């Protein structure tokens, strides 16, 4: 993995590894969002499509960096992180963020984008939201600087984020503070989120995200086509369905696809390319890059963040954790039913590199995207 991401943006990745879903504290999200299933929120018609495009771009980019390592990240959180930072920017820095994220300000006003993220976070933070995840973000700012009141208010109201005074003159102390804070807010899921800091650090953005997939046991049929992230780019030629709504599909993009429903609104796609076909599969994705670099340079205009001298982002760290429930024992109770009702299916082993995409079906947004280069248990 290269030492930096868009200059000093560091992506920490692994099978346990994501950028912000943002909140003042680490929030655990559980419950049922089905009652609000068809509501899209304020002016968010193009929101999901934009986030999806970014996810495919970042996936291809991250895979080229990682080689055979395991990469997992959250496209929603990465997009939210940069739009949150845009609240403190001006001029070219401000423009570059929205251009890089492919948000069309002619179709969706800037404040509408912020409101969409606010709507998303509020929905996810509802006590009855069923998907099991923990997410949060924090801005660590040099304790000699005074944060602008308007910036602090807006990131709190729109992104449930927080600013934390930090003594960056002592790098070891700052790293310890950041890591302890993140460990506490993530309920122990995220540790050692920061391994190093530049000696001139004045502003560091830290975000964490974890997802725990619990298999739904409802017996049901599934649709006859695979839609991944809202796009029907897998064309079904064969299909087998088990009692949980999972299915294996032979796709024209040299891949098998296992679709697994988790509790309530989350669904996962495990995409297994034929041997030596991973790069060809990834070639079907967009090769765009974000191109957001100015906020990490001396030309950064984050003058709306503090009341003091202008600052630049020295470090932005994103870490995600993905845990998938072992379903062997759960499936055992249905084994006899499957033998009677299911057609004979081939055995497909995920023993080589594959892709994983997890989305919220109601929101139609990709929460987790990744490539598992080493599928052995970690």
Automatic annotation (TrEMBL):
<keyword id="KW-0722">Serine protease inhibitor</keyword>
<dbReference type="GO" id="GO:0004867">
    <property type="term" value="F:serine-type endopeptidase inhibitor activity"/>
</dbReference>
<dbReference type="InterPro" id="IPR042178">
    <property type="entry name" value="Serpin_sf_1"/>
</dbReference>
<dbReference type="InterPro" id="IPR042185">
    <property type="entry name" value="Serpin_sf_2"/>
</dbReference>
<comment type="similarity">
    <text>Belongs to the serpin family.</text>
</comment>
<dbReference type="InterPro" id="IPR023796">
    <property type="entry name" value="Serpin_dom"/>
</dbReference>
<dbReference type="InterPro" id="IPR036186">
    <property type="entry name" value="Serpin_sf"/>
</dbReference>
<dbReference type="InterPro" id="IPR000215">
    <property type="entry name" value="Serpin_fam"/>
</dbReference>
<dbReference type="Pfam" id="PF00079">
    <property type="entry name" value="Serpin"/>
</dbReference>
<keyword id="KW-0732">Signal</keyword>
<feature type="domain" description="Serpin">
    <location>
        <begin position="56"/>
        <end position="375"/>
    </location>
</feature>
<protein>
    <recommendedName>
        <fullName>Serpin domain-containing protein</fullName>
    </recommendedName>
</protein>
<dbReference type="GO" id="GO:0034097">
    <property type="term" value="P:response to cytokine"/>
</dbReference>
<dbReference type="GO" id="GO:0005615">
    <property type="term" value="C:extracellular space"/>
</dbReference>
<keyword id="KW-0646">Protease inhibitor</keyword>
<keyword id="KW-0325">Glycoprotein</keyword>
<feature type="signal peptide">
    <location>
        <begin position="1"/>
        <end position="24"/>
    </location>
</feature>
<dbReference type="InterPro" id="IPR023795">
    <property type="entry name" value="Serpin_CS"/>
</dbReference>
